[in-house]
Amino acid sequence: MKRTFIWMVFPLMGAILFWGIDALVMAHHGTWSTTAWITAKSIALPVACGSAFWQMVKLFSCQDRLMGAAMAMATGIWVSGPLYYIYFHLSFGTRPMSTAEMLFHIALFPIATLMVSLFNGSIGGLLITSALLGILGTGWLGIPGQGKGNQE
Description:
There is one protein chain. The chain is mostly helical. Helices cover 76% and strands 0% of the residues. The protein has seven helices and no strands. It has helices at residues 2-27, 34-60, 66-79, 81-92, 99-107, 109-120, 123-138. The longest helix is centred in the first third of the chain and has 27 residues, at 34-60. The mean pLDDT is 87.
């Protein structure tokens, strides 16, 4: 039951956080320099996703499935990339996207995720977030909810 819960909640949270923050930064990209908004994405996206992962593991008591939860969150980010790509293209593109193009991008989700992150400057955030979730999943930086006072 817990595994099903993890694979429903963590991917959704990862997708909403990562691409939602990216969309907020993109909404204000005209007022910032290119260096500022790319740096903001490279720092804000990993910090937000890592912090949310840590809090969600504590909240839902998923310490025994740490790597599964981390990979679920990373999967949500990578799989939802094509949907954000379609949104990004429809918002900022100069020509409409056909249904066949939309389906093509959804079918090739890892490539579409890389494409959108390259086009909008979040490739650093995507790679750092993916690596951070992998590291957090190993427990090398500690296990959420199991501080020195909580150990038996």
